[in-house]
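User: Is it possible to get a 3D structure for a protein together with its bound compound? The compound here is S-adenosylmethionine. I've pasted both below.
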Amino acid sequence: MSHDQYRHEHDKKLKAKFHWLTKIRKFWQSDINRATLQLVEIKPGETVIDIGAGMGPATVAAARQGAKVIAVEPSSFMRTILSIRRLGQKARSQIVVADGVAETLPVEDKTIDAVWTVNAVHHWVDLEAAFDELARVLAPGGRIVLLDEDFTHSDHPLHATHHGHEDELTNVYVDEIAEALTARGVHATGQLTTAAGVPVKLIRGVRTP
Ligand SMILES: C[S@@+](CC[C@H](N)C(=O)[O-])C[C@H]1O[C@@H](n2cnc3c(N)ncnc32)[C@H](O)[C@@H]1O
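Assistant: Yes, that's possible. Here is the predicted structure of the complex:
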């Protein structure tokens, strides 16, 4: 199934692949992904989703921690890299790489213990559809952590050089997102804070029964 309507034009361009390759060190493993996973507080045996998993830095770390991870990623380029990376993991049987988007998650209702996303909310096209999906898939008590680095913040070390194409992507307003999730039964709060030493936009929530 094509998810093209849920991908920004910017992300579909060949240029995006070259851009991602220039960032491969960060996309392979990063402090910001480690910091996000700490907030998720994975427990062995949980079923979790990494939305917009990219090359899978958080996916492989969560699998090593004993979770069953569904790495949802719409870019076939990213999925290919992650699928190859998966083969090199001891915990590979714990990882499923799935074609999908935040707006249509390829899992059954109320089956997921935790969902996170790192630097991907600004790539989502239809936030309302994505919030519906988060509320649908989380089991009662299930957690969400949505974290985007705030490159627009003057304290971010990459502030001056980052070309985030903000004008072509989706704005992330933490309070509005928290409110929209809470209205759907995922009790959430939004914060402008720091993680791994950089300014971030953070939304955390728990699915009410
Ligand atoms: C900046 S990358 C971050 C990748 C990874 N989470 C990381 O931290 O290394 C953003 C990712 O979001 C994915 N993406 C784009 N549109 C999406 C959507 N609608 N739903 C979920 N992921 C999406 C992109 O393909 C890309 O892999």
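The two ends are 32 Å apart (CA to CA). The CA atoms of residues 29 and 57 lie 5 Å apart.
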